[in-house]
Amino acid sequence: MLYESLLYFEKLESFLARPASMAETGPGRKVQGFEEIRFEGVGFCYPNGKRALAGVSFALRRGERLALVGENGAGKTTLVKLLLRFYDPTEGRILVDGIDLREIDLKAWRALIAAVFQDFGRYALTLEENVALSDPDVKPDPNRVAEALRLGGAWELLQRLGPQALLSKAFGGTELSLGEWQRVALSRAFFRKAKLLVLDEPTASLDPKEEAHLYRRFAGMAGGKTVILITHRLGSVRMADRILVLQEGRLVEEGTHEELLRRKGAYAELWRLQAQLYET
Q1: Is 124 inside any structural domain?
Q2: How far apart (Å, rounded) are the C-alpha atoms in residues 194 and 252?
Q3: Nearest by Cα to 127 from 185, 172, 204, 66
Q4: Does an H or E element contain 236, and which?
Q5: How far apart are the first and last CA of the chain?
Q6: What is the longest distance spanned by two Cα atoms in the chain?
Q7: What CATH number should be reported for the domain holding residue 93?
Q8: Which class for 67: exposed (0-12), middle (13-18), buried (19 or more C-beta within 10 A)?
Q9: CB count, 10 Å around CB of 95?
Q10: Number of domains in the chain
Q11: In this structure, is residue 123 part of a structural domain?
Q12: Cα–Cα nearest to 117, from 187, 182, 199, 186
């Protein structure tokens, strides 16, 4: 165990010694919102040479609900991480109201965004603290926490455990199931007053019935927010205003659910394959 741990720390020290690729604050422009985000010929290669995106161009308008679909490795999550500026594009540019994203103050940009990824955090804190963690500069308001838990599908947890219940057995608290933790992570995103909401496979650990309830709630409360949804369950993307289909890092189709089915292309094939799973 010690040998394996030392190998890990060698990698960790090497990573920490690398210079920061971008500064959190600096001379960049401060932003408080946006009207349009535009990808222009965006491409990205990882340091190992693997190309994740190539020539991706599209526009996302304020208040729009956009779904990204495609097979594993199509580049969906990489695209979102470029938008969040975890990385910068190796080709092309991302414009926010005509301004290159690299010229915008990073901290101010991320303050506009709430995101739930597949590998969401599970914190050994109280239920209330787990939710309020997404907006640490604001004192937790019980009503706001309760509303976020309702929107995230974790209302039953609040009723059963109470807001001060310690989560995780590490410190003698309650251990949640994976699906319950995912509901808490979704509630954390809803607690944050964000302009842009990113959901990367947000229902992977939920059963189909709870997933359907979640998206009905989500469609009702997302008014005014700009939303990017990544999912493999195509039944969930019908609520989107527009669907982008990625294939091997390239944008191959774009349109509504009905338009893409009529084209009988990549999206229609994915839809047909998933539909077969439910046929008797």
Answers
A1: no
A2: 30
A3: 185
A4: none
A5: 50
A6: 60
A7: 3.40.50.300
A8: buried
A9: 17
A10: 1
A11: no
A12: 199
> What is the span of the domain harbouring residue 274?
35-112+228-233+240-280
Q: Name the token pair of 18.
A: 């690398």
Classify residue 93: in a domain, yes or no: yes
**CB count, 10 Å around CB of 170?**
10
User: Given its phi and psi angles, is residue 44 left (phi above 0), alpha (psi -120 to 50 degrees) or beta?
Assistant: beta
Answer whether residue 279 is part of any domain.
yes
* Per-residue pLDDT of the chain in tens (280 residues, 90 and over written 9): 888 888 889 889 988 998 877 766 566 788 888 999 999 999 999 888 889 999 999 999 999 989 999 888 889 999 999 999 998 999 999 999 999 999 999 989 999 999 888 788 889 999 999 999 988 887 888 899 998 898 888 889 999 999 999 998 888 889 898 888 888 988 998 898 888 988 887 666 566 666 666 666 665 555 678 989 887 777 777 778 899 999 999 999 999 989 999 999 888 888 888 776 655 4
State the amino acid at position 253 in one-letter form: E
Alpha-carbon distance values, 240 to 68, 187, 200, 218, 263 (Å): 10, 20, 14, 11, 18
φ/ψ (deg, to 5) at 164:
-95, 10
The pTM of the full predicted model, rounded to 2 decimals, is 0.82
Residue that is written with structure tokens 């997933």 in the block: 211
At 184, phi and psi to the nearest 5?
A: -65, -40
